[in-house]
Write a structure and sequence with these properties.
Layout lengths: L7 E5 L3 H9 L4 E5 L14 H13 L3 E6 L5 H4 L2 H11 L3 E4 L2 H10 L5 E3 L8 H9 L4 E3 L6 H9 L6 E8 L11 H6 L17 E2 L9 E2 L1 E2 L2 E2 L7 E3 L4 H7 L3 E4 L6 H15 L5 H8 L7 E2 L21 E11 L2 E6 L3 E2 L3 E6 L3 E6 L3 E3 L2 E3 L1 E2 L5 E4 L10 E5 L4
Parallel strand pairs: 1-2, 1-13, 2-3, 3-4, 4-5, 5-6, 6-7, 7-13, 12-14
Antiparallel strand pairs: 7-12, 8-9, 10-11, 15-16, 15-24, 16-23, 17-22, 18-19, 18-24, 20-21, 20-23
């Protein structure tokens, strides 16, 4: 049996569906955005009612929920902060995540009992900074992504044991230092530091020579377009034990803008590796099936390995097909998302058993048996492995994605 990893598995959740999915697949905690100062302007954030619902669902499972309040605030926004902090405290959230020193100070002044975690946006690179945050009342620091394992060990040795350390282990990485990028503001007037990043680092670019205006030269290698500014995606499933031994107690998955299918895929793989029931090799294969850029382990081993530019495109070979809604004695009711047919080979993403392939033998709709399921969100009945349970997702491997 593989070695068990004991840290907290922390999942992103952009909506209630993602909260439920993260809990179903074994997350120990989720982090969400609320109505104020969250660093994802494109996400509407949880309404107050949604947040109460999420807190209830999370605590029902004896898990934890953290709320991001991690924008760099303007003076006008501080007028709303005391009331919002009191609301978050009364809602029962387990902690808030902040970047701004003023926000930290205001929250601790108005709600001294509300736990505060320091966001990676705060760029905590050393023990001196971590200790300052601890002395201001923070109970956890989300480490800067630029730290190596050795840096983390040093920081851990020089900070109080009561101060928890959290680190990102999977997901998109910003090309800028701790995400403090100005390209989006410059090109589109949308501030990354205010949660409105337009991700221009992931656009395709052309070269223009100044004496030849209008002549656009594509930046190519082997005929492929190139995203010259884009970083790879982080994937640390193979080094979780090393990160734990360096002093990290919470493993964070990036992706509050991602789908429930993404959350299911990543959390299922990491949970099973941490529980010692899936090999790293199997998990790495799993993690290639969702949409991703080329993977790396980031800065944990030092300087990031330079890769050819033409390997900067998105890859995936798995398609989200359906979610199991109810199990019966002779099959399951599922809510479909993408087309499939009798005779297709699908894979049940079972929380209990992992990935279980099966062949579709029958599809039953409201009007009886049919050969194909084509309407998104339709509830249909299909045969499925015995281990299926409500909340499990079903996917299909697709060639050439």
């Amino acid at each position: 049996m593989a070695e068990i990893i004991k840290g907290e598995l922390l999942a992103p959740a952009g909506d209630i569906e993602c909260v439920n999915t993260a809990l179903h697949y074994g997350a120990d905690a989720v982090y969400v955005g609320g109505r104020l100062l969250q660093l994802r302007a494109a996400a509407s954030g949880f309404t107050d009612d949604n947040l109460f619902e999420a807190v209830s669902k999370v605590h029902e499972k004896n898990k934890k929920i953290y709320v991001t309040v991690n924008c760099f605030a303007k003076d006008s926004e501080f007028e709303l902060l005391p009331e919002y902090a009191r609301f978050l405290n009364e809602s029962g959230v387990d902690a808030v995540i902040v970047s701004d020193l003023g926000v930290l100070s205001s929250i601790k002044r108005h709600c001294p009992d509300l736990q505060v975690h320091i966001s990676t946006q705060a760029n905590c690179m050393n023990s001196e900074t971590a200790n300052v945050y601890y002395n201001m009342g923070a109970t956890r620091v989300v480490l800067a992504r630029e730290l190596t394992l050795e840096d983390i060990k040093t920081l851990r040795a020089k900070t109080p044991k009561e101060l928890e350390l959290e680190a990102f282990v999977h997901g998109a990485m910003c090309m800028a230092h701790s995400g403090r990028c100005l390209i989006s503001s410059y090109l589109t007037n949308r501030s990354a530091n205010r949660g409105a990043c337009s991700q221009p680092c992931r656009w395709s670019y052309y070269l223009v020579e100044k004496t030849r205006p209008g002549v656009y030269i594509p930046i190519e290698q082997d005929g492929e377009a190139t995203q010259i500014l884009s970083s790879h995606d982080l994937n640390c499933v193979s080094i979780l034990k090393e990160i734990e031994e360096a002093g990290v107690c919470s493993f964070k998955i990036e992706g509050r803008m991602k789908t429930a299918y993404y959350v299911a895929s990543v959390i299922n793989a990491y949970r099973r590796v941490m529980d010692g029931v899936m090999s790293v090799k199997e998990a790495e294969e799993e993690l290639t099936l969702m949409t991703h850029r080329p993977y790396s382990t980031g800065f944990y081993y030092g300087a990031v390995k330079k890769e050819p530019f033409n390997d900067g495109l998105y890859h995936h070979s798995g398609m989200f097909i359906a979610t199991v809604k109810e199990k019966t004695s002779d099959g399951v009711y599922v809510q479909m998302r993408n087309r499939f047919a009798v005779g297709d080979t699908l894979e049940l993403m079972s929380r209990e058993k992992g990935i279980v392939p099966f062949n579709v033998e029958r599809i039953e709709g409201e009007e009886g048996d049919k050969n194909e399921a084509v309407f998104p969100m339709e509830i249909i009945k299909i045969n499925c492995p015995e281990c299926a349970s409500a909340g499990d997702m079903i996917r299909k491997r697709v060639k050439g994605c």
